[in-house]
Design a protein that fits this description.
heterodimer, A: 676 residues, mainly alpha, two-stranded antiparallel sheet, 24 helices, 71% helix, 4% strand, globular, B: 301 residues, 11 helices, 70% helix
């Protein structure tokens, strides 16, 4: 059954890709939406079947090169299929109306639609294919198609630059994965993932190196610091629905890869745990610290993805420590929290990106400093952005809180260990998580407060389009699920329990009581979140009743007696974060351009800040600079002379042919010398 | 339930005691202890002026802020009686619920489009971010010390422990008092009685609030004070029977209020730019508590 489902799923994708070039722009939207909805439906049936009937696997015979191709459906893949499908459903839905204004660019749209379909189909296949070679091929399809969907506006230089940056970095990731998989193939004699288990059980230290290799590869995809530099470039360049999909699920496939490898590789999990925790804490803190100083809303959200990947990573690290020290509580809380946060982040981040898309369609800019007062122009998008902001800050009653609470409860349990190092690590993880939460609060009060509240900070174009109710429908759907998970987290508890069981191999049967306690707490926070909502609603009702009887009037904002136009006097995003910026300036890299007031009649004074990434400078810009300087010495080779190029080709070919001969001769000489 | 009612009761007079202490310290007779509460009740009955710039967020925020504090209070136990809400890890929800209210207050300040209120909002956001770690480390230390992760379990077992726990409790009291001062924007960090918008934090955020909403905000401050007072009281109450614990609860609240009053009378406000450093000190003190706990438990290497 699963086999047929997957085959029909892929078939729909392929048929759509063939069909798209023959359609007009309008029909294309309908076709893509229908086909992807159908695919999503199939994917959900698949997920339902896996969660209710358990694992299932089958295999294709494959070819001489690939060997047998096993396709395995387990709970982990089902979980990721679920969240990828949902985000693609809302993304396509939103995208169809978002792309309406580009309807003249038919061929460009066709390419975009093809790439989108391919990206979705390949992402789902990545979740189930367990043959290393085929996995890499599908991974490559995914990387190339995501590159294509990012560069939709390829006629803009910045977009193309960001896209190429993404392309290069994802290929570095593929390179690392290839090395890892080929090494594994050489050692195990097969591309099948399952054989990794036996091999690494016998050689734990090799397993550790192998895991680090895979982790680095997947970390580039998911955007752990210091491999995050492509994220803040690619997200603003892509169209809104693609940013949402990319931040929601494409970077999550890296998390999937890490988790997938964790289910196969068996090695010293304590070391892995400490390592992943360290990387994640740095990612989380660094991501949010940089997010706050951004002025471009999409860049801000991109940095926030890095932060959330950090939170997910803290969960994964905690789970690994749990396996390493055989503490089931930590496994459940760590992996459960990480998985749930993966789902949650895909929901609220796509919601935030889509509503940012609505802002862009209205104001044609996403520069926070020039926006303001949008809550009166696009109220629906504003409410949805507010829901997303509250959720991403991890505040109850929304879903972000549930997953963060999960991880917190694991950390607070872990703190009661007897190992000093372990306790310290737990403490600092708690500290990091708290700081991340606090910083996210600053960041999203800034983003929401400056963009949607107050009054316009610059002139918006006059041809303002009002938002259509239909255009916010997918967003409302996401918001509904955000609230649903926040209030009824226990809906997912059995699923999460099943998945976390995948990670605890050598531990015998599950201590059900322990787990139930964890999930009882989930029920509790859901219930109390609901209680909080009821309480708030009740108090707002009381307020409504009381204030209805009282007089109320409207007047201008208090300005110490100044009654003129105060549009330019409002607090701006830069001034809102000034105190914070002063505090963290030594850590971050913020270039300031300042024009001071000089002379008797000073001119216009201004101050511009350009936040830049210190890690990007150290890890990307500096090496590229030196690399370029080195390569520049050989620039004389590229002289534009066709004869020279033919000569190079000739030299190359001769070398290739002669090299074995020369080596053979050298061996002869060495043998001769040895005989002397 | 008991603790909820007690905190509500204490909140009626808390600010009154603070104000009275301050006036006695400055040589005045001062208003009665019920006066601030009477002011709040009067505000609740007054009409309001709203800014033209503001949206529904501005009108909703104070009520949500109050609701968040009420829910947080419901989690606090009293001696051997658990709070209305009690589960493992409830203090995480406690902190996050309070943050939820704060989020709304901050955006409501930005909602007015004022040139002042953003300033207060910005400071409030930063300081509450800086103060949060201290609270979590204290709770982490207690979780480590007692082996439990809910307010009720922690506080009820803390007091069965050795006498050293009282020493830790004392340090924790110091940190909690200062957290309360910062969260309520009181003296060493902020001066509620200043009349210059540029130097205020909390007061400047609520410049445009009036009537019922302002009453809510003022009452939320009293509630927050007595909430932290109740947390402090819980450090020492232990499992004593109610006839003893209820009077001692009020005595501790009273001492706390007097301490706040004295602190406000004899301390000058810090320079704004020095506040972050000051708040970081709390985190280091709470780290001291943490290492103290580790030493006591013999887990320190």
């Amino acid at each position: 059954m699963e086999k047929h489902l997957l085959e029909v799923f892929n078939l729909i994708g392929v048929l759509l890709v063939i069909l798209i070039p023959f359609l007009t722009a309008k029909k294309m939207g309908i076709a893509v939406l229908t086909a992807i909805s159908l695919q999503v439906l199939l994917a959900f049936i698949l997920v339902y079947r896996i969660f209710s009937f358990g694992f299932s696997e089958f295999s294709y015979s494959g070819s001489f090169t690939t060997g047998e191709i096993p396709i395995r459906f387990d709970y982990l893949s089902a979980w990721f299929i679920m969240l990828i499908s949902f985000t693609f459903l809302t993304g396509t839905w939103y995208g169809v109306q978002y792309m309406k204004k580009y309807k003249d660019q038919t061929s460009n749209l066709a390419l975009h639609s093809i790439a989108l379909t391919l990206a979705y189909t390949s992402l789902i296949n990545i979740c189930v294919v367990q043959n290393a070679l085929v996995f890499l091929v599908v991974w490559e399809i995914m990387a190339l198609s995501s590159f294509t969907i990012i560069i939709f506006e390829h006629y803009k230089k910045d977009t193309l630059k960001a896209g190429i940056n993404f392309l290069i970095q994802s290929h570095i990731s593929i390179l690392l994965l290839t090395i890892g998989f080929i090494y594994a193939k050489v050692k195990t004699g097969s591309y099948d993932f399952a054989l990794l288990t036996n091999f690494t059980t016998l050689h734990p230290s090799v397993g550790l190196v192998l895991f680090m290799l895979f982790f680095t590869g997947f970390a580039i995809k998911s955007g752990f610091v210091p491999f995050h530099t492509w994220l803040p470039l690619a997200h603003p360049a892509a169209p809104a629905h693609i940013s949402g999909i990319m931040s929601g699920v494409i970077i999550k496939i890296g998390i999937f890869g890490i988790l997938r490898m964790l289910t196969f590789i068996k090695t010293d999990f304590t070391v892995i745990g400490y390592f992943v925790l360290l990387v994640s804490i740095i990612s989380g803190l660094y991501g949010v610290m940089l997010a706050i100083v951004q002025h471009n809303l999409k860049r801000l959200l991109a940095y926030h993805s890095i932060e959330n990947i950090g939170i997910i990573g803290i969960g994964i690290g905690l789970g690994c420590l749990g396996i390493g020290t055989s503490q089931q509580w930590l496994i459940a809380a760590g992996f459960g929290g990480a998985l749930l946060h993966t789902l949650n982040h895909s929901l609220f981040k796509s919601l935030l990106f889509y509503s940012t898309g609505n802002i862009y369609q209205l104001a044609h800019t996403v520069n926070i400093e020039s926006l303001g007062g949008l809550i009166k122009r696009i109220p629906r998008s504003s409410y949805l952005f507010l829901v997303g902001s509250l959720a991403i800050c991890g505040l109850p009653p929304f879903n972000g809180f549930v997953s963060e609470f999960f991880i917190y409860s694991g950390l607070f349990k872990g703190i009661q260990s007897s190992n000093f190092l372990f306790i310290l690590v737990m403490l600092f993880s708690i500290l990091a998580l708290v700081l991340i939460g606090g910083l996210a609060l600053i960041c999203f009060t800034k983003a929401f407060g400056i963009v949607f509240l107050g009054t316009n900070r610059s002139h918006l174009p006059d041809d303002l389009a009002d938002e259509k109710p239909l255009s916010v429908f997918p967003l409302t759907l996401i918001a509904f699920f955000i609230l649903l998970i926040g209030i009824f987290p226990m809906l997912f508890s059995s699923m999460l329990l099943n998945i976390t069981n995948l990670f605890q191999y050598d531990l015998s049967t599950l201590q059900a009581a322990n787990m139930e306690e964890t999930f009882d707490n989930l029920t509790a926070i859901g219930l109390y979140s609901l209680g909080f909502m009821v309480l708030t609603a009740l108090m707002l009702y009381i307020r409504h009743r009381v204030t209805n009887r009282l007089v109320s009037q409207k007047d201008i904002t208090w300005g110490c007696g100044y009654v003129g136009d105060n549009q330019k006097m409002q607090y701006t995003a830069s001034s809102f974060i000034r105190t914070y910026r002063k505090l963290v300036e030594p850590i971050l890299l913020i270039k300031k351009e300042k024009k001071l007031a000089v002379g008797m009649y000073p001119g216009i004074i201004e101050q511009i800040t350009h936040p830049y990434d210190k890690i990007e400078r150290a890890f990307i810009d500096k090496p590229i600079y030196y690399f370029k300087r080195f390569l520049n010495r050989f620039v004389f080779l590229q002289n534009g002379n066709i004869q020279s190029y033919i000569l190079y080709g000739f030299i190359f070919l001769t070398t290739v042919f002669l090299l074995p001969l020369i080596i053979a001769k050298i061996f002869v000489v060495i043998n001769f010398l040895n005989q002397l | 339930m008991v603790s909820f009612l007690l905190i509500i009761l204490a909140s009626f007079v808390f600010i009154g005691v603070v104000v009275r202490t301050k006036s006695i310290a400055s040589g005045r007779k001062g208003p009665g202890v019920m006066q601030p509460m009477k002011d709040i009740i009067r505000l609740w009955r007054k009409g309001a002026v709203y800014s033209k710039t503001s949206s529904f967020i501005f009108q909703m925020a104070p009520t949500i802020y109050l609701a968040s504090i009420l829910l947080a209070i419901a989690m606090i136990p009293h001696g051997k009686l658990p709070g209305i809400i009690s589960f493992d890890g409830d203090f995480v929800m406690f902190a996050y619920i309070l943050a939820f209210g704060k989020f709304w207050m901050i955006i409501s300040a930005l909602d007015t489009g004022s040139s002042f209120e953003g300033m207060g909002a910005s400071r409030e956001a930063l300081y509450s971010m800086l103060v949060e770690p201290a609270f979590f480390i204290i709770m982490g230390s207690f979780a480590l010390f007692t082996g439990y992760t809910s307010f009720y379990d922690i506080f009820s077992t803390l007091n069965y422990g050795p006498y050293i726990s009282y020493l830790i409790g004392l340090l924790a009291t110091f940190v909690l008092v200062l957290i309360a001062m910062i969260e309520n924007s009181r003296m060493p960090v902020d001066d509620p009685k200043t009349h210059l918008e540029l130097t205020m934090i909390h007061e400047v955020m609520i410049l445009d609030n009036s009537g019922f909403d302002l009453g809510n905000i003022f009452y939320a401050t009293s509630l927050k004070f007595s909430m932290y007072g109740a947390l402090i009281a819980n450090l020492f109450l232990g499992a004593v029977p109610l006839p003893i614990s209820i009077p001692s609860f009020f005595i501790i609240q009273f001492v706390f209020a007097v301490a706040v009053g004295i602190l406000e009378s004899f301390m000058a406000r810090f320079r704004m730019s020095h506040n972050p450093q000051f708040i970081f000190i709390l985190t280091s003190v709470s780290l001291l508590i943490f290492f103290g706990v580790l030493l006591v438990l013999g887990k320190f290497i």
